[in-house]
Design goal:
It is built from eight helices and no strands. The protein is mainly alpha-helical. InterPro entries: Sulf_transp_TsuA/YedE.
Length: about 180
């Protein structure tokens, strides 16, 4: 096993542990999130995004890592986001929480994991078709929000963090 694989395994196990400790693997939390009645999952995700964003930007600025954007492709985002949403609504788990739920012993979530594996295989087999159709719709190339807006990435990170904190405060006031 390479160092990257070992670090990936450690990071994945830590993330799974945090998912479990944050109780976001629970079906009632998933349904509550979909109904906008329980914001625990959104708080968890937004917290992870803010911490990850600041960490990745700092590592990038220190030239420890190099960011490599994926292509901004509207067709792929629309189709992928729709499939993600349908899967979450049908299973009651998103991809990460379905794997975590299986790890917790909730064997019904294995159908979501199997669905992800089968879906990835279908995508791989149909990639040439997708490349000439969905993946060619409104392809803006490898661009990020800072490049599109022409501002420093830290401005976006700080604004996002402030908005996230304000949302957390609003969630707490509403009791969700």
């Amino acid at each position: 096993m390479s160092t990257e694989q070992i670090l990936g395994l450690i990071t994945g196990l830590a993330f799974g542990f945090l998912l479990q400790r944050g109780r976001v693997l629970r079906y009632d939390k998933q349904v509550g999130a979909m109904l906008f009645k329980d914001m625990a999952i959104f708080k968890f995700m937004l917290s992870a995004i803010v911490v990850g964003m600041f960490g990745i930007l700092a590592l990038n600025d220190l030239e420890i890592i190099k960011l490599s954007h994926k292509a901004m492709n509207v067709g792929a985002i629309l189709v992928g986001g729709t499939l993600f949403g349908i899967g979450w609504a049908v299973m009651g788990f998103c991809p990460g929480t379905s794997v975590g739920a299986v790890g917790e012993g909730r064997w019904h979530a294995i159908f979501g994991v199997i669905g992800m594996i089968v879906g990835a295989g279908i995508y791989a087999e149909m990639y040439p078709f997708f490349k000439s159709t969905v993946l060619s719709w409104a392809d803006f190339g490898k661009i990020g929000l800072p490049e599109a807006l022409g501002i420093n990435h830290w401005v976006i990170a700080v604004i996002f963090a402030i908005i996230t904190l304000l949302m957390f405060r609003w969630f707490e006031k509403k009791g969700i």
